[in-house]
Structures are given as structure tokens and as C-alpha cells.
Amino acid sequence: MAKIVAGIGTSHTPAIGAAVDLGRTAEPYWTPVFAGYEPSKKWMAETAPDVAIVVYNDHVNAFDFKIIPTFGLGCAAEFPIADEGWGPRPVPPVVGYPELAAHMVQSLVLDEFDMTIVNEMQLDHGLTVPLTLLYGQPEAWPARVIPLSVNVVQYPAPTGHRCYALGKAIKKAVESWHEDLKVVIFGTGGMSHQIQGPRAGLINTKFDTAFLDGLVDDPERLASIPPLKYLRDAGAEAIELVMWLIMRGALGPRAREVHRFYHVPASSTAVGHIVLEAVDGRARKAGANTTSRATRAKTKAKTRARRR
Ligand code: DHB
Ligand code: FE
Fold it and tell me: 4, 115, 268, 272: which has the fewest C-beta neighbours closer than 10 Å?
């Protein structure tokens, strides 16, 4: 059986990719950002997943305004890197997993999620920057990748509730695949940011912190945040955060926080990052979940303190 062992939430700020590609990661502006991902890179190398499902959004590169799938599942064997105006990023091509992706489409459609099957798609910074942050600059990406593109660019974006439910259905789809595969799922984009208009540069650290806390402890509460609240409270592009709820839904009811990082600013974005491991019932019974309980108690105390 294939199993989703962990979820990764991360911003996908394009300037981060440029900093890596242009050899500027040691500049003072960038060192804190990359330092924040070091523990996760180590964790990723140790976890060594076979497959990464990357929930991301296209920024009018693969899809123009002719056709905009709300949920598009990448079923190709390979995905080229998009030219976003200054040439494709110098990163390896992304190798897909057509058999597992086709199985996921079948399972999800039978579960009444109307997925768009995408057999050809170029991938932009929304997907490549998260891979760079977790894997660095390898010759080839160490995992096969199934891209799941979510429309958060053209109104209306799907609700957080719908995304969370889709995550749950993805867990079911993956677990009904016959091969023994270790799978991780990325939720990408966010956190608070607005890149245009009079409110450009808006950051809401309180919103972002509550979102990271909720991912660990109370995803149902996050799933009930209406789309417009993301825009009003945390900037127009903060709506990208609904993609993190797909990731969280795919982990099951309980998750253990492994690493968290938050930094302002990188370009216009509040960079947020979290690594969550799925906690299954068996691990809990065996008493292997003490860290999780401690983390949850800490988070609860923090949340209570904030509410006072
Ligand atoms: C920025 C962030 C994004 O998520 C994006 O897609 C483009 C730009 C930024 O912070 O500059
Ligand atoms: Fe974006």
C-alpha cells in the first residue's frame, strides 16, 4: 500500500528561486531564509519519499485565461519547466508518475471531485521553488512528482473546506494504490502577501501564526475560513494558503509538527514553512506519539494566551 507519511507547507516566492539560480544565497538578505529550511532539507534526505504530490498554483504560465481548471492533476510522464519571461529555471525536468496519477484521478472522480486530467503542462515557480527549497540543486529530482494545480489566480478560488475535503480524498486514493510507496504531499504558496495595488506589501504575522498553529491542531477551524477573509486579512495572494489545506487533509486527523519556520520578508511575501508527519492510530497506541502530545499542549497554551 502507498502511504502519505508527511506534509510540507511552504511559500513559493519566485525571488527565492532566482537567488538560488544566480548564486546569491549567501547574501545577508537571503541567509536567514535558506537557514530556515536546513532542518527540513536534512529531514527530506532522511525521509527519502518515492513520490511527492505537489499542490501548487500556476501563475498564468501553463494555463492562460482560455482554460482555467479549478483542480488539475498532472498525469504526464515528464513536465517541462516554464519560461516565465527570462528563460526556464535551470532545474531538472520534473518526472511524473502517470500510473499513480491516473489511479488518483479515477479514485477522486468516483469520490465526486471533478478533476481535470492534465496530460501536458509546463511547471512554474509555484512548483519548482518548493522543490528547490527542500531538495537544493540536485542533478535530478530524487522523487517522482505528481503536480496538482489549483486555481487561486482567477476568481473564484475553491473554498478551504473543499480543499480540505479533497485532501482527505487524496489520502484514500493513495492508500488504495497497490505498490508500497512512501509519499509526501506539499501544500505551497502563501503566507500573507499582496503583490499589487494600494495594499502591496501587506503582511499579517498574527494571521500567519494562527494558520500554522491551526494546521497542527485544528485544521477543521482553518477549513471554515471563507475565501474573502484570506484576501481581506492577509492580502490578495494569501488565498494561495487554501492549498495547504489539501496537504493537511491528506495527512488524516492527527499530525505531528517536525519543523516550523517563519520569516518576513522575502520579496513581498511572509515566508512560512512547516513539516508535519502523519500520526496514524497504530503509532498512537504504541505510545510513539509523546512528542505530538507535548507539541499540541504547547500550541494550545499559545492559542489560549493569544485569545486572552
Ligand atoms: C511573489 C510571491 C508569489 O507567491 C508570487 O507568485 C509572485 C511574487 C512575491 O513575493 O514577490
Ligand atoms: Fe504565488
Answer: 268
> Closest ligand 1 atom, CA of 12?
4
- List of E strands, the chain: 3-10, 51-56, 71-74, 78-79, 94-95, 116-118, 144-150, 182-188, 255-266, 269-278
In eight-state DSSP terms, residue 46 is: H
List, by residue number, the catalytic residues.
Answer: 125, 193
User: Is the CB–ligand 1 distance for residue 208 below 6 Å?
Assistant: no
SS3 247: helix
pTM above 0.90, yes or no: yes
> Which ligand 1 atom sits nearest the alpha carbon of residue 240?
4
User: pLDDT of 86-121, one tens digit each?
Assistant: 999 999 999 999 999 999 999 999 999 999 999 999
Chain centre distance of CA 247 = 6
Residue nearest atom 1 in ligand 1 by C-alpha distance: 13
- Residues present in the chain in total: 308
The atom of ligand 1 lying closest to the CA of 266 is 10
Residue 13 beta carbon below 6 angstroms from any ligand 1 atom: yes
Give the residue whose CA is nearest to atom 5 of ligand 1: 13
Q: Convert the pLDDT of each residue in 223-252 to its tens digit.
A: 999 999 999 999 999 999 999 999 999 999
DSSP 135-192: H-S-SS-SSEEEEEEE--SSSPPPPHHHHHHHHHHHHHHHHT-SS--EEEEEEES-SS
Neighbours of 32 (CB within 10 A): 12
Q: Cα separation of 40 and 47, whole Å?
A: 10
| CB-count exposure of residue 30 (10 Å: 0-12, 13-18, 19+) | middle
Q: Is 14 in the pocket of ligand 1 (CB under 6 A)?
A: yes
d(CA 254, CA 249): 10
CA separation (Å) from 198 to 47, 108, 202, 231, 273? 43, 40, 9, 13, 27
